[in-house]
Amino acid sequence: MGGPELETLLDEKELARLIRVSVGTLRYWRAEGRGPRFRKVGQLVRYAPSDVHEWLNSRPSGGELIEAPTRGACA
């Protein structure tokens, strides 16, 4: 067909299993306007893997030393 390929969309259960959270957590995040971008297909909720990767990469990460300002340090 020559057109761009469509991503296989993930349903709630698939995404919950992949990122190891409950379906309830995903629903809570959606209600709060948090979490990965989602699409509604009729009444179904679907997630594009590329949106999930983008969201995960935007999350704060640990492991980097951030130097905190010292309080009351005497020189």
Radius of gyration: 19 Å
Q: Name the poorly predicted regions.
A: none
Strand content: 5-15%
Q: Which geometry do the CA atoms define? A: elongated
- The ordered string of helix (H) and strand (E) elements is HHEEH
Overall description:
The structure is a single chain. The chain has 75 residues and is mostly helical. The protein has a domain at 12-57. Helix content is 37%, strand content 8%. The chain is built from three helices and two strands, in the order ααββα. It has a two-stranded antiparallel ribbon. A hairpin with a 2-residue loop joins strand 1 (39-41) and strand 2 (44-46). It is elongated and about 60 Å long. The N and C termini lie far apart (71 Å).
Labels describing this entry:
37% helix, 75 residues, 3 helices, two-stranded antiparallel ribbon, mainly alpha
Summarize the entry for a quick read.
This protein is mainly alpha-helical. It has helices at residues 12-19, 23-32, 49-58, and strands at 39-41, 44-46.
Set down the secondary structure blueprint.
Elements (H helix, E strand, L loop, with lengths): L11 H8 L3 H10 L6 E3 L2 E3 L2 H10 L17
Antiparallel strand pairs: 1-2
